[in-house]
Amino acid sequence: MIVKPTIDDAKLILSYTGKVVIGVSLLLLVPMATAAAAAEWDALVYFTLSLGLSLSSGFLLSIAGVTDRRPTWMHGMVTGAFSWIVVMAIAALPYWFSGNYLSYLDAMFDIMSGFTTTGLVLIQDLDHVAVSLNMWRHLLTFVGGQGMIVLALTFLVKDSGGGYKLYVGEGKDERLFPSVFHTAKAIWKISLIYLAVGTLALWGAGLAIGLPLAPAFLHALWIYMAAWSTGGFAPMSQNLLYYHSGLYETITVVFFILGSFNFALHHAVWSGDRKEVYRNIETVSFATTMSALTLVTAWGLMKLHVYPDFMALVRKAFYQLASAHTTTGFMSVYPRQLAIEWGDLALGAMILAMLIGGSACSTAGGFKGLRMGMLWKAIVQETRKMLKPSSAVFSQRFHYHGERSLTEAQVRSAALIVLMYMAIFLFATMAGTAAGYPFLDAAFESASVTGNVGFSIGVTQAGMPSFLKVVYIFNMWAGRLEFMAVLAFFAFVGSFFRRKTA
Amino acid sequence: MSPATRARAMRARGTLWGMVAETFYVFALSSFCVALAALVYVLAG
User: Fold this and answer.
1) What distance in Å separates residue B41's CA from the closest CA in chain A?
2) In this complex, is the C-beta atom of B22 within 8 Å of any C-beta atom belonging to chain A?
3) Does pTM surpass 0.90?
4) Segment A195-209, tens digit of pLDDT
5) Residue A117, class by beta-carbon neighbours within 10 Å (0-12 exposed, 13-18 middle, 19+ buried)?
6) Is the confidence metric ipTM above 0.90 for this complex?
7) Fewer CB within 10 Å of terminal CB in chain B, N or C?
8) Given A270, A291, A317, which is nearest B32 (Cβ)?
9) Domain ranges within chain B, ordered by starting residue
């Protein structure tokens, strides 16, 4: 049990949460400008109203939390978890005002799905929503990929010591520079440079398939944002299937795989260490599991003769699998096609891919290639130990921005996080079966929310039970923050309200 | 060319080649996966 927190601890957490809320509120200026440019006056009114309400909430929290205390690890962790909950409730305002949601819970579900870069949606009539609302949806998922706290650190929190604790609280722990402020800036630089390149490429592809100039640009911008952040949102309800374009699919594959890379890897490669991309334990782990799961998926599909044509097999199988493994969630098949046609073997491979996910400190979810690589190395080490004399000394090494020795602490930490991922995956699977869905459908959707993927087999709909929506929101949140901040949050709340005991 | 401009140009060149190296990794991995799918197609087809 932790030491009972004081009012000053709570104030400090409220203060930093207020700063994060203000940072996210200021993003509303983008959809407001879009609404004005597209002459969507109703949307402009509800975005302005939302800005007023969210800014006031942010300032109130900041003022209520004024204190001289310096943040500790506990404050950083609890703020990381708490600010995601508060921002979910506040950022859902424009969704709710738009009239495209059946309940406020549905609006909050879509916000959590966007911020965690999951990509599942409960929105109604997506094909006809306002341009500004689509801008808000995709902007949220883009920012969510880099991290809301990274956003707040860049503009609002200059305090380096406290800033790093907040940064770790959001599930990121790589420092690209000694200063966390410069690290946050470098993350934005990488994302914005790729934003320009990716949007241009997709704009060209949009024009090539016959989209008019302005819609081609907007679709390119939104699809890029969703690809890079491994979010999987799309402006049309058919998702990537809407475009029926091999070119669009090829470009998005490149950017969502790049988006699933560790920001530290991008930084190292851009700084001249180009060999790192082929030697890093995360890219090696990703290439290994991706290749193995391609074999299994292709085998499963061929067994059932789902795609008798080779090009169709490659295009559908590779795209869905890469999208699942990078936790993007872009789909070029219909959800029910997965359930009815794909068969257990291919779906099993997809579930595994979604749970493994992309790289640590990236926009991707899942339990990450770094941990897969470490656990594999630990298994190899244990096997060697069994086969060699007891006096032999072992040291397992791995390449991760230089050669490193594998330590017991690293293995224990990786195993605990994988264990917790599996626990909440099973919990959401049981919740799905309790709601009456078949086991495989419930497991597939559960892997999708737990790994922040966004693939749907048809379970996630506005009509699903409310308790299942809450379970999915919890899994998206806990999976994105990688548990430590979530556990710290519950321990803090429990200790805050417990009675003083001797 | 001033040292600052030269440093900026070097950083830009590093970024460009870095992006090329990363994209090449994606294409190499994708091609390998397509080759594996082709193998399965031939063996199971």
Assistant:
1) 7
2) yes
3) yes
4) 999 999 999 999 999
5) buried
6) yes
7) N
8) A291
9) 1-45
